[in-house]
Amino acid sequence: MRRRRGISPFAAIVLVLAAAYFLIPLIATFLFSLDSVQTGNCCSLAAWGTVFHDGMFWSTLKTSLILALETIAISLVLFVPTVYWVHLRLPRLRGLMAALALLPFVIPPIVLVVGLLNVYHSAPGWFYNEPYGFLVGAYVILAFPYMYFSLDAGFRAIDVHTLTEASHSLGAGWVRTITTVIVPNIRVAAMSGSFLALAIVMGEFTIASLASFSTFPTYIDYIEQTEAYPAAAVSCLSFALTWAAMLSLLLVGRSRPGRFSQLAAGGAQRI
Questions:
Q1: Is the pTM here over 0.90, yes or no?
Q2: CA gap 183, 89 in Å, rounded
């Protein structure tokens, strides 16, 4: 039986330096948020109380969370069947899909928002004048590369053709095949894309600002320009919310797949 090798000194030094590079600014920001607004001395929760009692903080946070959920839902509904069909029937289009997914990286956000403002100008008022319409359309475009490449990696890790044939042989149609066989097997990839989309929405500032919508990033920018200590508290909260969302998605992603997907996998092995 081979003994497990411990971590090398060089690797330990690299990990310590990386942890210090990551944690020291965060700890410094947190300690700065505890300074007293009146005296400038530690420690006081006045800045945190200012943030938590600010109605604008809760309203913008709610708006951004709803926008993130809408973006994730629309992205999954659009891209899961599309990527599935490309892998199943149109593998030659994978290169084209990858090229299209790179466009949001090439087009600057300021150019994108100007183009969307012109395109959506003739749209109904409930879509053009509301963040849950205009911004969601923009965020789905921004999340396209992250969602596509995550799903593409997930589909490449499974045998799409065998799972589909096994599912059909057990009497499932196309909708049930996608929802109960394919989706559980790409759950981790879908969760990874969803987390990246959530991070994009919770941190996107340019489009929301130029389109004159109040979201959580615009609130952070506003509070940073007006109050120093509450700004540090909001930055810590933003970081904590992002990590909490990531951990919750990881926990959900580690749940066991559904019974029908396991049955289909067993049928695939028999085939």
A1: no
A2: 17
